[in-house]
Fold this protein.
Amino acid sequence: TGVQTCALPIFTEFFREALERFCPWLAAMVDWSKITRFLDKELRQVLGRSPRPRQFVDFLAEVRLKIRRGQRFVVHLEVQGQTHGGFSQRMLFYHVALYRRFRRPMVSIAVLTDSDPTWRPTGLMTGLGSMGVNFLFPSCKLSDFTDEELESDSNPVNFMILAERIARRHRKTPEVLRAEKLRLLLRLARFLKGKGYSERKAIALTRMVDWMIPLPEEEEERLMREIEQIEGETPMTYLTSFERHAMRKGLQEGLEKGLAKGRKEGRQEGRQEGRQEGRDDGLRDGWIEALKALVS
């Protein structure tokens, strides 16, 4: 899904920062000098048998503790966008399914992005009295963070939270939404320039922010023109609106290259592979041109 496509690079590139924001006590227990294993493939295999449609973001990683001789344990992040009466049951189902797959200590964390301040699931008790399972999980309610707190803190994951808020608050007023998106993109550009992140990290974060604040086509075009004007006056970097503009030519040329390769090979498989390779080349060239245009 679109949200999974955009969110997965964020949690991969900024997993430590995400854990520090969503569950700081657990992040403090992790030995970050050790390699973190990301288990998206295994997660899809396990949760592909889920009895409910996959509507929200899941992320799975294996880390090592600072204590217990560097014991490995698994962290499962579940991002939930709306209240749901069966959420705790679903968390238990996923937890048990993942434990059966990995057979090692694990923690399931709920990241709640809904706007209901009273909905705060933290676990599920099954059975009767002392007989049964008491399943507990930490939950992070993003609405608990103030705008001021998010804007003053240097955690890059805050930009994702702010983007979701902007989209939710101003979805019915496109002009205001465009203005707030521009403001956030400018802040993000300055933030990225100051941090000196790798191109991959910067692209992942910018793509997520841009995706989370969709605009009507007319407003998107206006935003692009505003950014182009500002870019001539102010050092900026990694803005996805420019990426789209630069990608148009690169993507088209890449697709033509792929189709030509497919025709030359004269096989259906060759056409499919060539088309995909051309699309990838076009996307990559588009990113490169966009970044060249924006790096001061």
User: Anything to note?
Assistant: Residues 21 and 213 are 21 Å apart (CA to CA). Residues 268-294 form the longest helix (27 residues). Strands lie at 37-38, 57-64, 72-80, 106-112, 123-125, 134-136, 139-141. DSSP finds twelve helices and seven strands in the chain.
